Amino acid sequence: MKISLYLLIFFLLFFIYSFPTKAWLDCPYGRVNDPYPGQCGLYTDTNNNQICDHSEAFPKGTQSFALSDSSKNIRPFFTFLEITVITLIVWFLTKKFFKPLNFRLFWNLVLLASFLPVGISGILLFLNIQIPNFSFWHDFLGVIFIIVGLLHLLARLNYFKQALGNKIKADKKAANLT
């Protein structure tokens, strides 16, 4: 139980501190000074100047928690590889320290907790409903959902092989009887 508490705290801290700290000059489409309403679903205007914050330089004279890198080629806050490695490390740590039933329950909950926001945000992004940083969370949780989903599938591969094999045998047996 103590290990699961530590992992829960780790996940909470991970999600809290993984929130993107940049909102200026980090347009994923490379646009500069993109005017209202913006040409993508990421339009954000916190300083009310009718220019997307993602496409403009940080305004001078204001305070920010943003990173000081002002280059145009800003890499995403977390890359696919980093999210994958962290997820795999947590997967193997939980596999080592959890009882099998708790391990499966925990990862089924992670799978559900990553699927629901990805599904809902996917629908909202498809409908072009603009919410700041929504695309980031869709992508971030989507990577976790894909990695955990693949691990889930691999862990149950024998079950699917057996179920499919039994179905084929039953079909052959039924065909021979007729």
Describe the structure.
- The protein has five helices and no strands.
- The protein has helices at residues 2-17, 80-97, 100-126, 134-155, 157-177.
- The relative contact order is 0.11.
- It has two domains: 21-75, no CATH class; 77-178.
Number of domains: 2
What is the approximate shape?
A: elongated
What is the H-and-E element order?
HHHHH
Q: Average pLDDT across residues?
A: 75
Rounded to the nearest angstrom, the radius of gyration is: 22 Å
**Beta fraction of the residues?**
under 5%
Spans where pLDDT lies below 50 across 5 or more residues: 63-75
Tell me the major beta sheet.
none
Q: Helix coverage percent of residues?
A: 55-70%
Helical segment count:
5
Structural class: mainly alpha
Number of strands: 0
How many angstroms does the end-to-end distance come to?
56 Å
Question: What's the layout of helices and strands?
Answer:
Layout (H helix, E strand, L loop, with lengths): L1 H16 L62 H18 L2 H27 L7 H22 L1 H21 L1
Brief synopsis:
The protein is built from five helices and no strands.
Question: Can you tag this structure with a few keywords?
Answer:
elongated; 178 residues; 5 helices; 0% strand
